[in-house]
Amino acid sequence: MRLLALLALMFLSACDRAEPGRVDARNYDAFWLWAGVEPQPVLDSAKTIYILAAEIKGWPEGRYVDLRPAVPQVKHAQVWIVYRVETLTWDASVLPRIRRDLKSWKGKGNRIAGIQIDFDAATRGLPGYAAFLQKFRADLPPGTGLSVTGLLDWSSGGDSPALNALAGTVDEVVLQTYQGRHTIPGYAAYLRLLERVKLPFKIGLVQQGEWQAPPGLSRNPNFKGYVVFLLNSEL
């Protein structure tokens, strides 16, 4: 019995030292499609696609900047409409425009899951972000899902009251393991704390980036899968 236990410990230790693999988009079924990124064949078999529609840019009030000359038409996959947000102070015209997007994208036959907000909220700023999202969701048409992207260090404070409040507002958070177009060094240290996250979450990966799933991730009841950020082939 002692020998078996020792062998098991050696096996787990070897797994911990295993080299991370590369993210092959063909092994996944959910993707971000950003403006300027060419569609890839993997999208033809996708189950979920997060499509960047616009940015909310500017200061002191964020203004809607359209990034799609035409409304996409996706018949085979669920679609999240994504907004890249620089500020939580919005011009009065932004929310009506988002509502129009929902209507026009649905009008093209897309199966809209909801809205995703891509905003780099610092962990210490989560209380204010949670309050913003509560109001934003209340202003959306009934039945509209709400997703947000999250920073890796959110997991290090995942038992905070602010994150618990967020859990009651959003349908999912997609924690990004990359910055720009590269995997964040040391991402595994943050992922060890995922048991603290008390809301449905996905892991965001970058195409061809490093990735090794932490032990026990697939058994976490709040883990809902992966989303791969697609890149152009020349990048």
Q: Would you count the extended β strands for me?
A: 13
CATH class, anyone?
Alpha Beta
Please report the number of helical segments. 5
Q: CATH H level: which superfamily?
A: Glycosidases
As for the number of domains, it is 1
Q: Radius of gyration in whole Å, from Cα?
A: 19 Å
Q: Which second-level CATH architecture applies?
A: Alpha-Beta Barrel
Provide the low-confidence segments as ranges.
1-18
- What structural category characterises the helix and strand content? alpha/beta
In which order are the strands of the major sheet placed?
Answer: 2-3-5-6-7-8-11-13
Order of helices and strands: HEEEEEHEHEHEEEHEEE
Written account of the structure:
It is globular and about 45 Å long. The protein has helices spanning 2-17, 94-107, 126-139, 161-167, 187-191, and strands spanning 21-22, 30-33, 48-57, 63-66, 78-85, 111-118, 145-150, 172-176, 178-179, 182-183, 201-206, 210-211, 223-229. The protein has a single domain (26-229), classed as TIM Barrel, CATH 3.20.20. It starts with a helix and ends in a 6-residue tail after the last strand. The strands form 3 sheets. It has an 8-stranded parallel barrel. The protein has a two-stranded antiparallel ribbon with strand order 1-12. Strands 9-10 form a two-stranded antiparallel ribbon. Helix 3 (126-139) packs parallel to helix 4 (161-167). With 235 residues, the protein is of the alpha/beta class.
Task: Note the main attributes of this structure.
235 residues; TIM Barrel; two-stranded antiparallel sheet; 5 helices; 13 strands
